[in-house]
Amino acid sequence: MDAKRVLADNPTMSVAGQARYPGSALCQFLDSRLPQRSAVAEEWARRAASAPWEPVWLAEEESRQRLGLAAEMRIGLDVGEAPAYFDLLSFLPPADYGALLDAAGFSSEKSPVAVTGTADPLLFDWRRVHQPIRCDEGQRAALAACLEASGMRDVSSGFIGRSVQSRRLFLTHIRSDIARYRSEHREGGSERDADLDGFAHLWRGYLAHGRRQLSGAGTGRVIIAPELGGGFGVADLVVGRCLVEVKTAFDPAVSMGYWLNQVLAYALLDWSDALGVDTAAVYLGWQALLVSDSLTRVLAAATAGRSPSLEDLRGDFRSAMRADVDESFAMRMRQRHPPFVTPAPQAASTQLHERPAG
Predict the structure, then answer these.
(1) 268-317, pLDDT tens digit by residue?
(2) What is the maximal distance between C-alpha atoms in the chain?
(3) Nearest-5° angle of CA 43, CA 46, CA 52?
(4) Secondary element (H or E) of residue 228
(5) Number of helices and strands in the chain (H, E)
């Protein structure tokens, strides 16, 4: 699709969207200030060519997108010290949610159920007690739960401010409709099984190679899905001081330039340096490989002369993106708080009929 047409139809496109289109405000800024950043993307692509894990091809585009989000969720649940992704995982029934967190290595044994009377595992105080080391049936069930929760992404915005019960009821109806359709058409779960098999293959690569690399990316706090620029961008992970985007692509070289634009934008959106990142990285899920560089090196390689400071770039980026950030925030507020509906005026005949006599 023509880039200008896409940008015209989506004037407040998110950071992830703008990273792909040369005419966007994001790419125009990066082109003006970091014109040689393609050298970094090419270097990252060369590293990806020697990845330790072979990808599995999924034919359906929807399956690939759903697995990408599911992989981000499952990896986040593995590196984080506490659960996250409540906007999507809250669609799962209580038993499925509890089983997922248990398989992910969390425990709620110290949650004071007897004192508070809380019975819903979504409300428990889950804490990390271990990390799984193999992909057994319990782990496959956890992967299946992440796949199912990721399928709720396109509808989750419609449930902002609504109860967990309504979310779970919605997924229950979805499950019932799928089961009825398969029964009527005599279809099995072959496509779903293929997606899960592919996800299990990705997860085994993560256990064998990826976890060690992410653990080595930094020590200290892990931040899951931090919002940046007032919500204009939402990164995947911050591990220590390393900002990480999780990607699942069969051929990483095709998209590496877009991904570099994205991680740079997230680093620049952190106006106040609240995340304290000094390294940018992409974790390639299918290839089980983390490619990264310090922001200092990236900025130096991306400029011909003297490299700009991160602080100066952030200030200039904030000015350049102000209109996009403000309009994006306004749109989210309108979605979250719909405008008042003004009642239609009464018909003239009714008004005349109700006018007092005399």
Answers:
(1) 999 999 999 999 999 999 999 999 999 999 999 999 889 999 999 999 99
(2) 93
(3) 130
(4) strand 227-228
(5) 17, 9
Q: Which helix (H) or strand (E) holds 246?
A: strand 242-247
CA dihedral 292→298→301→305, nearest 10 degrees, is -170
CA 132-218-276 angle, to 5 degrees, is 130
Cα pseudo-dihedral 94, 224, 58, 50, rounded to 10: -140
| Residue among 122, 118, 79, 125 at smallest CA distance from 99 | 122
Which residues on neighbouring strands pair with residue 293, listed in sequence order? 280
Three-state DSSP state, 122: helix
Q: Is 234 helix (H, G, I), strand (E, B) or coil?
A: strand
- Beta bridge partners of residue 31, listed in sequence order: none
Using the 8-state DSSP alphabet, how is residue 86 labeled?
H
Phi-psi region of 225 (alpha: psi -120 to 50; beta: other; left: phi over 0): left
C-alpha dihedral (351, 356, 357, 358), degrees to nearest 10: -120
3-state secondary structure 305-332: CCCCCHHHHHHHHHHHHHHHHHHHHHHH
Nearest one of 40, 1, 24 to 233, comparing CA atoms: 24
The two structure tokens encoding residue 339: 């405008």
Cα separation values, 312 from 12, 224, 302, Å: 24, 26, 15
Q: Show the tokens assigned to 100.
A: 């997922």
Residue 191, CB-side half-sphere exposure with 13 Å CA sphere: 10
Quote the CA–CA distance of 47 and 51 in Å, as a whole number.
7
Under a CB-based contact definition with an 8 Å cutoff, are residues 294 and 278 in contact? yes
Could you tell me if 214 and 290 are in contact, meaning their C-beta atoms sit under 8 angstroms apart? yes
d(CA 172, CA 175): 5
Q: How far, CA to CA in Å, does 286 sit from each of 29, 207, 290?
A: 31, 12, 11
Of 44, 68, 19, 36, the residue nearest 282 (C-alpha)? 44
Q: Using one digit for the tens of pLDDT, what is the confidence trace for 169-212?
A: 999 999 999 888 777 776 655 666 889 999 999 999 999 999 99
